[in-house]
Design a protein that fits this description.
The structure holds two protein chains of two kinds. By secondary structure, chain A is mostly helical. Chain A has one domain (about 15-120, about 145-295): ABC transporter involved in vitamin B12 uptake, BtuC (Orthogonal Bundle). Helices cover about 70% and strands about 0% of the residues of chain A. Chain A has 13 helices and no strands. In chain A, α2 (about 10-35) packs parallel to α7 (about 150-170). Chain A is globular. Chain B is α/β, with parallel strands linked by helices. Chain B folds into two domains: about 5-235, Rossmann fold; about 255-490, Rossmann fold. Chain B contains 18 helices and 20 strands. Chain B has a six-stranded mixed β-sheet with strand order 6-7-8-3-9-10, with helices on both faces. A six-stranded mixed β-sheet of chain B has the order 16-17-18-13-19-20, sandwiched between helices. The two termini of chain B are about 40 Å apart. Mean pLDDT of chain B is about 80; it is low at about 500-510. Classes of the chains: A mainly alpha, B alpha/beta. The interface of A and B includes residues 182 and 298 of A.
């Protein structure tokens, strides 16, 4: 019990929690945008993986982590464009498309890693080291935890705020929500539903890609096969836990991050914690939300349904 | 008065159905122009073309004297054409203000929106809280919201698609007054309807459509209503009343005793409803949509339990529908939404005819040949076209779909039948057939409960009439004693004796 208490009170746990929450938060943010527009993007996992691979590739080729970010985001957006082309323009099944993309990206990135680097020995590349925010990082208690992170963490926070504002306060956000709720009515009002859903899907891809870059360049500075490790699916669950509200995403993602950090620490210390249960928490919560135990908010009414003009 | 819009030689096809076949018509400023026609005559299609919702296959449109190609509804509104649909095209989950903004009202700020709405609501009051979700509003208010949205966009030609279907008589009166005042401002109004009484009341000009063709435009006074009716229907429809000889026997077959149903928010949908339906009579429950019809149908269909009171069939409590078959409950159900509740659209007719608790007894395996034989017999008996058991339900017209539902529900020889808006969306001929069928059942000693939002249907069919208003039932009154006036007042929530101040209907619903 003593060991557990030590872990729970250490700032390092929460710093790690934030770090682990960021990729999932970014992907969930993207998913939220897509789902508000009516598209379930199950391909999130694949887009994150493409981002993680692209990040390492770009950083390796150009020797600059920021160019790695751009490469990763571009690769993920390409995957998102395929998703949009099939599921939005051609009105294919969104879930089947997403699953197919996940599998395809897993194979494609492993293949490319072996093509670029002989025998698949991916080298260490330039990544993002923690950058202490001057002044704020010396705040007692939370300073180190919150303001001693890598640059992408601050970028993620800023993106969260911007997208919250865009979704709730702008005409674009209003039009997007209309497409997710009632595309036929939206169409009748002159909103270009297909175009809006394309935009939302591409934004989702970019954010998932950024989340993927963070996995590879924010922490371990290299790429390994399937390194997104199901975080895309966790992000899908977190959107549901947050009940499609951008502001609820932050606590939902943090909860996941801290759980995962706790599980990692419990494994290396002697603390007698069933860490598998901690890892299952996001899914248990998702079930609880769907069962209506944590309040009830309905998903966008046209979620998952392709729009075909009659 | 200047011509606002001119449509010439409009042809619109859907696959191989010609919905508009060379229609030419002109709409002028300062008048109310009624487009009269039966369901399926092509009125709405024609106006959807003018509103940019669908592209014509042939023909031209001129707006204000200049040729115009209309790319979509927003474009149409910019060109001065607005339309209020029968099922308003609003996004239910969004608020009133957000829906106005989506329609291009205001400049994106809360103040701009308020100013724009204040401007138009001097003529057409909109007594709705802008922060409310649209899905929580009754249909009449949604329609109003769409109307205001059009006007706020500065629309010069306003098209209304059967606006009176969801309004009480007093609300209709108020709407017509407002439409008249719009025309005095130099706007033009197009009113789509199949009700002749509305021609008499508001039309300055009438265009009759039948089978996708225009039968010419006349001034309202030039043709009598009887002439218009003949033109519209294309054949003589006998004006029938289907009154029967009255109830036989004393024991009610279907009986609601103090039935109460509450929704999730604790609001009462059905409040202490008591009603008896005897064998050999048709009892109609009439009311404006959204006053508890849904809950009433649900409890009679065994789909929802009552919170208090009881629903009884032949003196025994009506079990949930899942137990009907086992317990041998014989109650025919004609649901409101035949496309989603009455039929499985992508299944063939013979399979559709096997559904429901009154289907013929089956063993473990389907006896396909016997089922087909039965289907063929029923389809012929009920004059379904095509009488092909392999046809998909989706391929049938609304009238024929309804006949299939009736064939299935009535072939089980039910002792009682509950029907909800049995003729909604059917043309006059099909309506007539359905009414005859129900009247014949009554004469055979079946107890019929018809829940309807159509006062004309109620008056034509019922032996006794009750009015549903906000979940409470007034009556039933014998049909001979219940006049249109009395029923209209009750539908608006007024007592039998009170007179109705103009506009009271809407605010009463809003409250």
């Amino acid at each position: 019990m003593h060991a557990l208490l030590d872990i729970l009170t250490s700032g390092a746990l929460y710093a790690a929690g934030i770090r682990l929450a960021v990729p999932v938060f970014l992907a969930a943010l993207g998913e939220l945008v897509a789902e508000r527009g009516g598209l379930v993007n199950v391909g999130l996992e694949g887009m994150m993986l493409a981002g993680a691979f692209g990040g390492v590739l770009g950083s390796y080729l150009f020797d600059d982590p920021w160019l790695g970010v751009i490469t990763g985001v571009v690769l993920a957006v390409v995957v998102a464009a395929i998703q949009a082309g099939v599921a939005v323009s051609l009105a294919g099944d969104q879930i089947v498309t997403g699953i197919a993309l996940n599998i395809a990206v897993l194979g494609a990135t492993s293949f490319m890693a072996r093509t670029v680097w002989t025998d698949g020995n991916v080298p260490q590349v330039e990544g993002f080291d923690p950058w202490a925010v001057p002044g704020l990082s010396s705040l007692p208690g939370i300073g180190d935890v919150v303001f001693g992170q890598g640059a992408l963490v601050y970028l993620a926070a800023a993106l969260g705020a911007v997208l919250w504002w865009v979704l709730t306060r702008t005409d674009w956000g209003l039009r997007l929500r209309a497409c997710g709720e009632d595309p036929r009515a939206a169409d009748s009002l002159g909103i270009r539903v297909i175009a809006m859903r394309w935009q939302a899907t591409l934004i989702c891809g970019a954010l998932a890609g950024l989340g993927g870059v963070f996995i590879s360049l924010g922490d371990i500075f290299t790429f390994s096969d399937g390194m997104s490790g199901g975080r895309g699916f966790i992000a899908l669950a977190i959107v549901i836990i947050a009940r499609w509200s951008p502001s609820h995403l932050v606590p939902a993602a943090l909860l996941f991050g801290v759980c995962e950090a706790l599980a990692l620490r419990a494994q290396v210390t002697s603390a007698d914690l069933p860490y598998e249960l901690l890892l299952a928490l996001p899914y248990v919560l998702t079930l609880a939300v769907y069962a209506g135990l944590v309040g009830r908010t309905l998903p966008p009414a046209a979620l998952g349904r392709p729009y075909v003009r009659r | 008065m200047p011509v606002l819009a001119r449509m010439s030689g409009i042809v619109k096809r859907f696959d191989d159905v010609v919905a508009n076949d060379g229609v030419t018509v002109e709409f002028s400023a300062g008048e109310i122009h009624v487009l009269l026609g039966e369901n399926g005559a092509g009125k709405t299609t024609l106006m959807n073309v003018l509103y940019g919702l669908s592209r014509p296959d042939e023909g031209n449109i001129e707006l204000g004297g200049r040729p115009a190609e209309i790319h979509g509804p927003l474009h149409a509104m910019r060109l001065g054409v607005g339309m209020v649909h029968q099922h308003p095209l609003l996004v239910g989950r969004l608020t009133v203000a957000e829906n106005l903004r989506l329609g291009g009202v205001g400049d994106g700020t809360a103040d701009g929106l308020r100013a724009a709405v204040a401007e138009v609501t001097r003529v057409i009051p909109l007594d709705i809280d802008p922060a409310r979700r649209v899905e929580d509003l009754p249909l009449s208010q949604r329609q109003r919201l769409e109307l205001v949205r059009c006007l706020a966009r500065g629309v010069r030609l306003l098209i209304l698609d059967e606006p009176t279907a969801v309004l009480t008589p007093a609300e209709v009166e108020r709407l017509f007054t407002e439409l008249r005042s719009l025309t005095t401002q130099g706007r033009g109004v197009v009113l789509i309807t199949h009700k002749l009484s509305e021609v008499a009341e508001v039309a300055q000009r009438v265009t009759v459509l039948r089978g996708g063709r225009s039968l010419g435009t006349t001034l309202a006074g030039e043709r009598s209503l009887a002439e218009l009716s003949d033109l519209m229907v294309g054949r003589q429809v006998p004006a029938v009343s289907h009154r029967g000889a009255g109830a036989v026997g004393t024991a009610p077959r279907l009986r609601l005793r103090g039935a109460r149903v509450g929704d999730e928010n604790g609001r009462c949908e059905l409040d202490d409803v008591t009603l008896e339906v005897h064998p050999g009579e048709i009892v109609c429950v009439v009311g404006v949509e959204g006053n508890g019809q849904r809950a009433l149908a649900d409890v009679c269909f065994g789909r929802r339990p009552v919170a208090a009171g009881s629903v009884e069939l032949d003196g025994a409590i009506l079990p949930p529908v899942g137990e009907w078959r086992r317990r041998g409950v014989r109650l025919g159900r004609v649901p409101e939404d035949r496309r989603h509740e009455g039929l499985v659209l992508d299944a063939p007719l013979w399979r559709n005819l096997l559904l429901g608790p009154m289907a013929p007894p089956s063993r473990f395996l389907l006896h396909r040949r016997r089922a087909l034989r039965r289907a063929r017999r029923l389809l012929t008996e009920y004059e379904v076209r095509p009488a092909d058991p392999h046809a998909l339900a989706a391929a049938l017209s609304g009238g024929n779909q309804q006949k299939v539902v009736l064939a299935r529900e009535l072939s089980g020889e039910p002792g009682a039948v509950v029907a909800v808006n049995p003729t909604r969306g059917l043309d006059v001929g099909a309506q007539h057939d359905v009414h005859l069928r129900l009247a014949r059942l009554r004469d055979d000693g079946v107890a019929l409960l018809v829940i309807s939002t159509d006062l004309d249907e109620t008056l034509a069919l019922a032996d006794r009439i009750a009015v549903l208003y906000r979940g409470r039932l007034a009556g039933p009154y014998p049909a001979d004693e219940a006049g249109r006036d009395l029923l209209g007042r009750l539908m608006a929530g007024l007592g039998p004796g009170e007179s109705e101040p103009p506009g009271a209907g809407v605010s009463a619903v809003a409250a």
